[in-house]
Write a structure and sequence with these properties.
The chain is of the alpha+beta class and 361 residues long. The protein has eight helices and 20 strands. The strands form four sheets. The protein has a six-stranded mixed sheet, sandwiched between helices. A five-stranded antiparallel sheet has the order 13-12-11-14-20. A five-stranded antiparallel sheet has the order 15-19-16-17-18. Its EC number is 3.6.3.29. One of its GO terms (molecular function) is ATP binding. It holds the Pfam family TOBE.
Length: 361
Amino acid sequence: MSLYCRFKGSLGQFELDADIELPESGVSVLFGPSGCGKTSLLRCLAGLSRLEGQFDINGESWQNDKHFLPVHKRPVGYVFQEASLFPHLSVRANLLFGHKRVKRSQKANGYISFDRLVELLSLGPLLERSVVRLSGGERQRIAIARALLTNPRLLLMDEPLSALDSHNKAEIICYLERLQRELTIPIIYVTHSHEEVSRLADYVVVMEAGRTVAAGEVNAIFSRLDLPIQHDEIAGSVLNGVIAEADHQWGLVRIGVSGESIWCRDTGLQSGDHVRVRVLARDVSIALNPLVGSSILNCLQAQITEIKDDVAHSIALVRIKISDSQGEQYIVARLSRRSISQLDLQVGKKIWAQIKSVAVM
């Protein structure tokens, strides 16, 4: 861990109480419902809002009891919900606005050049165009590139996809995944979207009512039953796997996940590719024996580790472990209390988890 922050105090009528450590690289997602304090925390990190607290990055203090580094001196890139480009400048001029302020001596430690960013974000055909006539997705790609061309030590992204339609969201996520593989600086990303956090997050911080209530790796957080995120209708787990083989006849691929196999639609992935699989709790059922003559392709041998009430009295959440010599991962099932009673499901019981639908992220 190389990024630590602690903030406590009032911002108008809102109370923030956050205390977290984050990895030195990768994407850390601040996740939770609207109004829970994600953007407020991000603004404190940027220095746009000031509360009592502490903020250290790579051993350097940007804020403590005696010191507060002002926002204009913080090497931070900030991407807002709206692109906020200069309408009187071309795409190239918008990008160079931040780039020209970077001194030659600062171009180290993971610096990405102008040409490389233009390539990564496919901006070449847009460089001489006016930003006024661009789509929302194109404008946001330019905003991301402009933030990175300032050579920041920290990139902050405040729901950068929230103003986009579904087509542009899907496009931008692909570009963000490219950047994720290329960047060495930490990225702190704000969202309330399950899909975005499932695809992009290396580390997740869950927030509720101004407080940080949990933090950890994606699979660990999204399989916890004590967090409010599991009461969402689209709640689910995220599994890490590797493409093991392709079945070209039926357009499927088999993904190896902790010693078990999951079949899903072939989207052009290659054998050996590392992937993430999202499994919704509502798409998981449980059997005491492997089914014969079923249309459900994915039936995983597993073990129950926890059973907890859902919001509705008639429903419960069940945490299920799949494991092999390489480690263990967890999925969550949402079942009726009647089914749990009829099957005599208990913690420690070995079962078969049937997964009706799987999404490769």
